[in-house]
Amino acid sequence: VCPHSCVCFQSDGRATMADLASAKKTLDGLVKAYAAGDATKTASLLGTLKVAITAFPALPPLFEQTPTAVEELMLARDVLEHATLFAVSQQDDAAAERNFNQLRPYYSDCAAMIPPSPRQALLTGLNLLRLLVQNRIAEFHTELELIPNEAHYDRHVAFCLDLESSLMEGAYNKIFAASGSIPTPDYAHFMTMLNATVRDEIAACVERGYTRLGVKDAARLLDVDAAGMDALAAERGWARSGDGGAFVFREEAAPPSAKDIPSMRLINQTLLYAKELERIV
Predict the structure, then answer these.
(1) 135 DSSP 8-state letter
(2) Which of 157, 172, 152, 82 is nearest to 127 (CA)?
(3) H/E/C letters for each residue in 250-261?
(4) Rounded distance, CA 168 to CA 239, Å?
(5) What tens-digit pLDDT sequence spans the chain (281 residues)?
């Protein structure tokens, strides 16, 4: 074991029992660093462990039946689970997707080889929520097909299913309400993104559907406080009425009057039709 908290390998690049023990020790340090919110140390230890697990022959796609195969698979799964959670905590959505794609085989292909992970439902739900936020609905349903039916009732997965149902119904108030009942703080980042997307959609509908709307009514529709309403209005360039109590999106058109009817044109057209009919008859 190196004195610098890294894992060394034998000359052919394959891990030894000592390497596995060292990797476990490094993983313990990673778990503590992540729990303490030490992003710098977490990133460093993740890099070390990702290199270390490449020397484990029992991992996908090789699946060699080594004496330590179960330990190797479980350790690699733990590393990738923490890598995914850490990427989400750092709001690095691309890294979260990459890490979960690497993690997926441990939940499917290795299900019969190792005990289930206590974090599987959390991370499965987190991946579903990410797809929902990114409006990748087809992929969302594809992922659902890969999840056992009994897992749909887990609170992490069921939360995402309820959100998807609310989105399809256009029940945006339910989505705003769901922000206060997320099953784990790990979902907060994606829920913030989803709420912002929903507010943009509501704001766009308001602009098209109203000529003017009271400020308090707009804030209620968008589920924001006064400061949030001011920020959103400034961002979208909404103009206020003279008294400041409403947003004006366009001037109301005056009701039509008799002057708007093109009477002479209509008379001429009627006379022309009459002449044509007379000629035909």
Answers:
(1) T
(2) 157
(3) CCCCCCCCHHHC
(4) 31
(5) 344 444 444 434 456 777 899 999 999 999 999 999 999 999 999 999 999 999 899 998 888 998 999 999 999 999 999 999 999 999 999 999 999 999 999 999 998 999 999 999 999 999 999 999 999 999 999 999 999 999 999 999 999 999 999 999 989 999 999 999 999 999 999 999 999 999 999 999 999 989 999 999 999 999 999 999 999 999 999 999 989 899 998 766 556 666 667 777 878 788 787 777 777 76
Q: How far apart are CA 14 and CA 120, in angstroms?
A: 28
- The answer to whether the beta carbons of residues 219 and 225 sit under 8 Å apart is yes
* SS3 letters across 63-83: CCCCCCHHHHHHHHHHHHHHH
Give me 189's structure tokens.
């980042």
Q: In this structure, what token pair is assigned to residue 214? A: 């009271």
Cis preceding-peptide flag for 105 (omega within 30 of 0): no
Of residues 158, 220, 150, the one with CA closest to residue 187: 158
The answer to whether 55 touches 70, Cβ cutoff 8 Å, is no
Separation of alpha carbons 151 and 158, rounded Å: 8
Cβ atoms 251, 211 nearer than 8 A: yes
